[in-house]
Amino acid sequence: MECRRNRVGELKGIWQSWDEAKKTRFQDKFGDVAQLLFNKPDDALLKAMVRFWDPTYRCFMFNEVDMVPTIEEYSTLLHYDFRYLLRIYCKQNVDFWGCLANLIGLPVDTVKARLKDKNGPYISWSDIRDAMGKASDDRHLALFAFVVYGLIVFPKAMGYVSVELTNFLF
Questions:
Q1: pTM of the model as a whole
Q2: Distance between CA 130 and CA 106 in Å, rounded?
Q3: Residues 6+ apart with CB under 8 A from 86
Q4: What is each CA distance from 75 to 79, 84, 152, in whole angstroms?
Q5: Euclidean distance between CA atoms 140 and 132, whole angstroms
Q6: What is the pLDDT of residues 32-80, one digit of tens each?
Q7: Torsion angle in degrees (nearest 10) through CA of 81, 17, 127, 117
Q8: Is 137 exposed, middle or buried (0-12, 13-18, 19+ CB in 10 A)?
Q9: What are the extents of the domains in the chain?
């Protein structure tokens, strides 16, 4: 089994191109999530963990016990205060297009046309990268946070970000 990290080289390059003031603004707003780009994952540990991962239910299965990190655990690990800590997150049919269109800065119809269905709605890294190139400072930071969470913290498909994260993060 090969352990690959989703676009980590490109994301590191973006982070390293920023000045200290921009990095500080990002960390103040989104916590330490960018530091995950520079942590080397333990391949042996990941290989062991994959054996227990159930992609259908998106959790770890140990015999009869299902385990998944809680919002509080993610919050502690990433040093990030999620918007609605006490909110209950469930899979439902939610219109993510408006929030995503606002984040990317494109009309809703354009965003809908660019979405891919890979067992859920996804947008490509290249579409996000293009939007980052045209984005204002705060939107640029938000897009970078969105893509780090989508490609590194909650990866699902190589080169794609689940649009469900827009409701979770923004």
A1: 0.77
A2: 11
A3: none
A4: 6, 11, 15
A5: 5
A6: 888 888 887 777 877 887 888 887 777 888 888 888 777 777 777 666 6
A7: -50
A8: exposed
A9: 8-169
